[in-house]
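Open question from group meeting: does this chain pack into something compact, or does most of it stay loose? Before anyone orders reagents, we agreed to write out a predicted structure and look at it together. Recording both the input and the output here so the notebook holds the full record.
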Amino acid sequence: MAVILGCYGSGSGGSTTFLFFTSINPAAYGFGVMFLIQGIMTLLFSFNNRLHFAFKPGIKDYTGIFLILFGLIIYPVISYIDEGYWLKTISMGLPCPSTILTFGFFMLARGRFPKVLLVIPTLWSFLGVSAAINFGVYQDLMIIVSAILADTILIRSRTHVQIKTTEKQSVR
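Structure tokens returned:
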């Protein structure tokens, strides 16, 4: 799954950013490069056997499933209802719904999550909020919510793992 996420992130995030968003904002060139880097990093962590996904019932994983469903289904449905025409529907392949989906998969990660993978999607989330406000793409407000949820939960859970490990070592 991590390999697919890495290839998808590089391909869709990088190409759509270069092809469509550079005419709106020249900073999109930088984000295009960042999406390519994100995809490569995801692939590297996958190939180094440091990124695994599995579902385990609990608030973290249910939140992850919700974010995946939001990126795949709810986001495009809101876009369709808002635009009223399927050719104008914003869907997967564009950076904002893809970033929400990515945060969802990150929530399903097992083991020690490499928090460096949170940096680029979180930066894009701040830009996505400006799109929601400036262009009226209100479903993009979920991108900052997904960033806050994923960053808080994943960073906190990693710290929690490190604290438990340190406590066990100090007991010996």
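Observations to bring back to the group:
Helices lie at 2-21, 28-47, 59-83, 95-107, 119-135, 141-171.
The beta strands are 52-53, 109-110.
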